[in-house]
Amino acid sequence: MEQSVQTDRVAAYLDxxxxxxxxxDPTERAEVLDELADAxxxxxxxxxxxxxxxxxxxxxxxxxxxxxxxxxxxxxxxPGSLQALATTVRAQRWWRHLRALAVLLQPAWWTLRGALxxxxxxFGLGVSFPPVTTLIAAGLFIGGIAxxxxxxxxxxxxxxxxxxxxxxxxxxxxxxLSLVSMAASDQGDPEPxxxxxxxxxxxxxxxxxxxxxxxxxxxxxxxxxxxxxxxxAGRPLNVFAEDVNLSSFGIETEYERDADDQPITNLYPxxxxxxxxxxxxxxxxxxxxAPTIVLPPSVRPGTSTPPVSNDTAS
Length: 314
What we know:
The protein is mainly α. The protein has 3 domains: 3-91; 106-185, no CATH class; 190-291, no CATH class. The protein contains 9 helices and 5 strands. It is elongated, with a radius of gyration of 35 Å.
């Protein structure tokens, strides 16, 4: 039988008998578990049958061992107690599979824990990393991961060390939850121009940058105002949703209203202002002017190009 299968069988059986040794002090309990694990590994190597069938139920196996070792029968479990509930859960087949999966995922957690605990030290170095600082940051991450793997692979720890490991696990979870919360909060009211990340339904330029306004011109290069634009389905063509808040990023949009006092969001160019504010000063607004344009040669004044039809002969 493969060694990994034997190890899983022994680990699952030990999980079931462990509660029957809860009355022992931690040191004696660890020694007893080690001795039982050695004996069960020998049995598992010689028999392919489930250990319950070979050595009997965990409770009976522990009782026989305690009797032979003079350890007494231990404290009986009260029906309905947390200890009895834990024993019932550990006896379930799904619990053994879940524990085996947790064992397989332990190295991944140790790696993530080391990176999370090193994160605050790395971020303390600053956002902009010159080469030397980058090497220091990489060293902190590698050192944190290596230390976490070493602690995790040690398995057994003294009581004080176990408390430190528990504190490290809790801290890593708190850091992970904080990062998730920060990532979720960053999804609200993104600024198209400064962040360069288009929102759902946002018009974008060929390079992926978001469009924040449309400026229509005549063939002669004269700017047009009060131009209503629609897409190929006849729907209003909007560069972004009306409720997008750009004021915190220095842009303010003011829409004209229709007879029902509803904003006309596809009337171009949009009337926008740039908000400027120095620390401690009252914010000021200045109109956001149209960009400088370059007309294609074919539509420059004094030139003409015959129209091109997209229709094909049928």
